[in-house]
Amino acid sequence: MEYVSMEPRSPLNGLIYDLYYLDGSPPYSRLILPAAPSPLIIVNLGAPFLIRAGTRAETMEHVDGCAVTVPTRAWEFSYPHPTRTVGVHFRPWGLAPFLPMPTSDLCDRPARLEQIWSRQAVAELRYRLTLAETPHKMLKSLEDELMRQLRVIDGLELVRQVSTALAETGGRMPINDINAAARASSTYLAKRFKAVVGVTPKRLARSCRFTSTVLAIDVAASIEWSRIAADAGYFDQAHFVREFREFTGLTPTRYVEVRRRFTREYPEHILGGWPLPAD
Questions:
Q1: Is the peptide bond before 100 cis (omega within 30 degrees of 0)?
Q2: Which helix (H) or strand (E) holds 256?
Q3: Cβ(70)–Cβ(39) below 8 Å
Q4: Residue 235 pLDDT > 90, yes or no?
């Protein structure tokens, strides 16, 4: 697969990690994406793809693309063969300025692009992308569209400051310290977080802690789960296993088996860092 990444210009770089282009045949037709504190937008330029999110048993077809807020559970993405998309990896607070509704309205309910932007705007964007001669020009076109869609969001700076502190501590910042640092009541902070991030500060902290813990696991080495759980600040190993099931849909042991399978079958694949084969 071909993968091209581009950091956006200011002020988008305060909301977005990167814009990306993806083209080719995926390693697996169905992938599990563990819940992570990073919303995204996908603009689809190929055949429709399927998403199963939250506690839903059924899958939803997405033709034009989708917007995904910070998920609370693992979600499943079914790629077409081949696939061709451009997309955006947002910072936890970054998607809200591009939505016409509170981010919490889409929590674990991925939206079609025409639900957040107009059908005409989406059609025109996809047309411009298909005319672009190179991946870089496609990403510049997507960047221009994001600048047009950018809105002012109440409380964004407060949420950004608190979310950044949570990320820097790997989600280990005590909730009382969060409220004190924000100089705001817990009720107001939770309300702003639900509107901007889609989840409460406590839920985001859990996601940051889990993600930083899992990304640090070396699946090629011998793993001492009790030590990993203790170092990450989990109350006990049972607590850690519950979090693992909620965020990945798998036990820690099964997660390592599946991650090792991906590494074995597709060493150094561009998608090998986070998604897991669902087949």
A1: no
A2: helix 252-265
A3: yes
A4: no
CB atoms within 10 A of CB 67: 23
Quick check: pTM over 0.90? yes
Whether omega before 82 lies within 30 degrees of 0, making that bond cis, reads yes
List beta partners, residue 61. Answer: 50
**Bond prior to 11 in cis (omega within 30° of 0):** yes
Question: Which helix (H) or strand (E) element contains residue 19?
Answer: strand 16-24
Where does 69-118 show beta strands of DSSP type E? 75-78, 83-90, 111-112
Kindly state the DSSP code that residue 103 receives in the 8-state scheme. G
pLDDT tens, residue by residue, 96-110: 999 999 999 999 999
Q: What is the pLDDT of residue 273?
A: 84
- Residue-level pLDDT at 183: 77
- Residue (of 112, 101, 3, 93) closest to 53 by Cα position: 112
- Determine the residue type at 98: F
- pLDDT value at residue 57: 72
